């Protein structure tokens, strides 16, 4: 990649290297998950802000994505990293193993479920996955906290089922 292209990419970043949201546990876990699924080393030399930046879908970015379209492998990897990270956080909060199950068609429709034992603690119908993202890192953190807290409450209310 040429130096000019790298500069253009850096200018397009929404998340800066000194963004305080990068220290949030869910953001750190998503970055960890993205690095874990990077079989070809694409993210090896990237900063944390560069890895998490595609998760932020500003109005301008959303405008540039077609209304109808098929998700590419990068978008599907981000969706899987999101649910993997949520599962790790739920597991950390409850002490029981949480397993994400993400089923996506090539058209960007599907379902994501997080199970703890035989208990379904999160369930989301997915559509228009090619437009997956959050308005900001703060919005991502709020959504994650809501899902994790609700899942932890379900586990506590139905611990016997979650242990199966």
Q: What's the helix count?
A: 7
Distance between the termini: 51 Å
Determine the structural class based on helices, strands and strand pairing. alpha+beta
The portion of residues assigned to helices is 40-55%
The overall pLDDT, averaged over residues, is 84
Overview of this protein structure:
The termini are far apart. The longest helix is centred in the middle third of the chain and has 22 residues, at 73-94. The chain has 7 helices and 3 strands, in the order αααααβββαα. Residues 1-10 have low confidence and may be disordered. Strands 1-2-3 form a 3-stranded antiparallel β-sheet. Helix 2 packs across helix 5 (73-94). It is globular and about 50 Å long. The protein has helices at residues 3-11, 25-36, 48-52, 59-64, 73-94, 137-157, 159-162, and strands at 98-104, 110-116, 119-126. By secondary structure, it is of the alpha+beta class. Helix content is 48%, strand content 13%.
């Amino acid at each position: 990649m040429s130096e000019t292209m790298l500069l253009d990419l850096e200018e397009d970043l929404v998340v800066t290297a000194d963004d305080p949201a990068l220290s949030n546990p869910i953001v750190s876990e998503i970055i960890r998950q993205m690095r874990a699924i990077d079989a070809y080393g694409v993210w090896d030399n990237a900063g944390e802000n560069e890895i998490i930046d595609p998760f932020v879908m500003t109005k301008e970015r959303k405008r540039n994505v077609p209304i109808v379209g098929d998700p590419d492998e990068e978008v599907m990897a981000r969706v899987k990293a999101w649910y993997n990270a949520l599962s790790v956080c739920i597991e950390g909060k409850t002490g029981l193993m949480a397993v994400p199950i993400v089923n996506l068609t090539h058209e960007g429709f599907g379902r994501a479920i997080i199970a703890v034992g035989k208990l379904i603690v999160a369930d989301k119908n997915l559509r228009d996955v090619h437009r997956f993202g959050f308005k900001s890192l703060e919005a991502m953190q709020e959504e994650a906290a809501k899902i994790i807290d609700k899942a932890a409450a379900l586990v506590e209310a139905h611990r016997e089922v979650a242990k199966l």
